[in-house]
Each structure stands twice: as structure tokens, then as C-alpha cells.
Design brief:
The protein has about 400 residues and is an alpha/beta fold. About 45% of the residues lie in helices and about 15% in strands. It has 3 domains: about 5-220, HUPs (Rossmann fold), CATH 3.40.50.620; about 250-315, no CATH class; about 325-395, Roll (Structural Genomics Hypothetical 15.5 Kd Protein In mrcA-pckA Intergenic Region, Chain A). The chain has a 6-stranded mixed beta sheet, with helices on both faces. Strands 7-10-9-8 form a 4-stranded mixed beta sheet.
Length: about 400
């Protein structure tokens, strides 16, 4: 496809799986102008590198970028390495702690690699907003701040709740939407994509572009994908996400852990074009396995999907321990099982969670689930360790 496709045909393709377009008539006007001038539109989507993983929620935006890319338009993939230092306050009930700059840089590099699991490299500009915000002086910050309205910002549900409950809202969080809006000014975006929770920030971009005497971007809002809990939006912060660069076995296990209702939701949002195919599968277990295979195939390959399926069937259907778990060596030093599990899982479980799992017999050491909280493993003994239903480790304590 290309910009030579009729604008009305383009807009029908673009509208698929979209919550809202503001304003839709302006999108058609921009597409017509692009068609007549043979000049591609500049499509913006911003991602703050607050974690190392792009997850399935992000893929909704990136897949829509791919649609624009295939229509011949230019993609501005904006990595908010500067704004990540503040943290997007959208939907948050408390201030996000600042991120270490080295971690932001590390995460940004993984984003660069992962987006090309979906996009091709043609007509994609990867931009970092530190390139312009690091040069901002106090005068420019004050000028930009003059376009913000504190009353309007406090009308946002997230800020309103925090303000009413007396929770802290920092001035930098007030500035965040203005910085995101200024990104659109700097790169001259014609269209910005975002989740429906980004409505305030993206529409502010239109306002700030107008104040700077720029053309106003069209805002396109996509659905929010719920996380593994089926309640909160998918996010690394909520630890309810599936990263597209995760181990295929982990992706498979996470999909198999979700409810049947959430599985249907994922199919509707992630694979609307394959809805009829999935509808023909009556057995929810088989349907869930197929969804897992589709995802792994998309972000790895068919052989990885097949291997993950085989591993799942072997591990969960036959109750076997996986063959490919890496052996970890941990110093015993009279540590109890709680200390050792905490170290083994790299502090992803709290001590109270570990105690609860031991008491409920949800931690298995080889074939043993019955041990006390002060249990100390044997020295130089290799243990196959299963935590819950789908976390496997192999450790030797010396």
C-alpha cells in the first residue's frame, strides 16, 4: 500500500480497531492533502522507557503505526528518555519515583531493537526527546508553562482523586503533559497515536501546536489492553504484563494463566482479523494454546511457538520439570529457604509472599512440599524448584 491509495480507502483501514479519532474530518483532510501532494504524513507515537520491555499493550500502537507505514506515511517513533525522568502521571495514584539515567538509556536501546519485530525500518525515525529538552533554558520552560492551565489539569480524574485525598502531586507532574505536547511541536506531527487514557495529553498537543502557530495534529485513540489480572491496564509497574521479548515459555505460561473471558478480549483486540478463525475453536484450552502460539510466532518464529507448546504440554499436562532451566549457584552460608528463594527470584517475591507460598505448599523442592520456614537445603545438592504453577528454577547451594 502507499499514499497513492484513495484517502477514503485509507481512512477505513485506519479506523479499524480504533476507539476515537479527533477530529475525524480533519484526518480525511490531511489524507487528501497528502494524496494530492504525494507527501507522506508524519505519524507520532511516544513511549517512555520506564522498563526494558515493550509489552502487548504497546503493540496495539505499534501495529497501527505499521498500518500507516504500509500506507506510505512516515513514522516518528519517539522515545521519551527525558520525560521518563519525570514519569507519566496518567492513571497513577502516586508520584512515580525518578528513574536512573543509565537504566533509561539501557531500556531505550531495547525499545529500538524490539519495535522492528513489528515495523520494518523503512520510513521510521527513532527520536529521543532529550535531544531538544536538554537544551531548554529556564526562559523556554517558563514560556511553555504559560500555556498550561492548572484548573484544567486538576480536572483530570487521576489528579482529582489524588488532590481530594491529599496525596502528593509534584509540579513536574503538571509539566509532563506540556512536555509531551511540545514533542508534537518540535517534530511537526500530523497525527499522534495513543491509548484512550492519553486523551488529555494528546489533545493538549493540538492546543500547544496552535499556540506555536503550527498545524494541529489529529489524535487517534486506541483501546487499552488489560493486564493478566483482567482489571488494571497492562503495565510493568503492575507486574501484569507480557513482554514481546520475553522467553517464549514465559509468554505461553502467562497466556495459559489468564481467564477465558480475558482470552476472548485479547483475541478481539490483538487479532480482530482472525476472529472467525478463533471462533471455530470450541475448546477454551485449545483456543488459549493457539493464542499463545500466535503471539510467540509473531515476536519469535513458528519453531519457537511449537517448542513452547511442547514444553507446556510436557510440563503441565505430564507434570514434568522443563529440561532447559539454567542451573544457578547460590552460596548457602546458613541461609534459610526464605533467604535462598528471595535471592533465587532476584527479589521479585517479598519475604511475606515466600512465607505464604511455603505454608500453602506452593513451593516444591525436588519432590518435597513439606518443609518449615527455617529449612536449610543440603550443601552441594542440586534442587529442582517449582514456585506456584509456572515458575521453575534449578539451583545448587554451596
Amino acid at each position: 500500500m502507499s499514499v497513492f491509495l484513495d484517502p477514503k480507502e485509507q481512512i477505513e483501514i485506519i479506523k479499524d480497531n480504533v476507539d476515537d479519532i479527533v477530529p475525524e474530518e480533519e484526518l480525511l483532510f490531511k489524507l487528501e492533502k497528502s494524496f494530492n501532494s504525494k507527501k507522506p504524513l508524519n505519524i507520532k507515537a511516544g513511549f517512555d522507557p520506564t522498563s526494558a520491555d515493550l509489552h502487548l499493550g504497546h503493540t496495539l500502537l505499534i501495529k497501527k503505526l505499521k498500518v500507516f507505514q504500509e500506507l506510505g506515511h512516515k513514522i516518528s517513533f519517539l522515545i521519551g528518555d527525558f520525560t521518563a525522568r519525570i514519569g507519566d502521571p496518567t492513571g497513577r495514584d502516586k508520584t512515580r519515583p525518578p528513574l536512573d539515567e543509565d537504566k533509561i538509556k539501557e531500556n531505550s536501546l531495547t525499545y529500538e531493537k524490539q519495535i522492528f519485530k513489528i515495523l520494518n525500518k523503512k520510513n521510521v525515525d527513532i527520536l529521543y526527546n532529550s535531544n531538544w529538552f536538554n537544551k531548554f533554558d529556564l526562559k523556554e520552560i517558563i514560556n511553555l508553562s504559560s500555556y498550561g492551565n492548572v484548573a484544567r489539569i486538576l480536572e483530570r480524574d487521576d489528579f482529582k482523586k489524588r488532590h481530594k485525598s491529599g496525596d502528593s502531586i509534584t509540579l513536574t507532574e503538571f509539566i509532563y503533559p506540556l512536555l509531551q505536547a511540545y514533542d508534537s511541536v518540535h517534530i511537526d506531527s500530523d497525527i499522534e497515536l495513543g491509548g484512550s487514557d492519553q486523551r488529555f495529553n494528546i489533545l493538549l498537543g493540538r492546543q500547544i501546536q496552535k499556540a506555536f502557530k503550527k498545524g494541529q495534529q489529529v489524535a487517534i485513540f486506541l483501546p487499552i489492553l488489560e493486564g493478566l489480572d483482567g482489571k488494571l491496564k497492562m503495565s510493568k509497574s503492575y507486574n501484569n504484563y507480557i513482554g514481546i521479548d520475553e522467553n517464549p515459555n514465559d509468554i505461553f505460561g502467562k497466556i495459559m494463566s489468564i481467564s477465558d473471558n480475558l482470552m476472548e478480549r485479547y483475541i478481539d483486540i490483538l487479532y480482530p482479523e482472525k476472529r472467525d478463525y478463533f471462533n471455530d475453536i470450541d475448546n477454551p484450552l485449545i483456543k488459549k494454546k493457539q493464542l499463545a502460539c500466535e503471539l510467540i510466532n509473531d515476536y519469535n518464529d513458528e519453531s519457537a511457538a511449537k517448542k513452547a507448546l511442547e514444553n507446556f504440554d510436557k510440563t503441565f499436562s505430564k507434570k514434568d520439570f522443563p529440561d532447559d532451566i539454567k542451573l544457578v549457584e547460590i552460596k548457602l552460608l546458613n541461609k534459610t529457604i526464605i533467604d535462598l528463594i528471595e535471592e533465587l527470584t532476584q527479589n521479585s517475591l517479598t519475604r511475606s509472599e515466600i512465607k505464604r507460598l511455603i505454608k500453602s505448599k506452593s513451593i516444591q523442592l525436588n519432590d518435597n512440599r513439606n518443609f518449615e520456614l527455617d529449612f536449610i537445603p543440603l550443601k552441594n545438592e542440586t534442587y529442582n524448584i517449582k514456585i506456584g504453577k509456572r515458575k521453575f528454577y534449578k539451583a545448587i547451594f554451596n
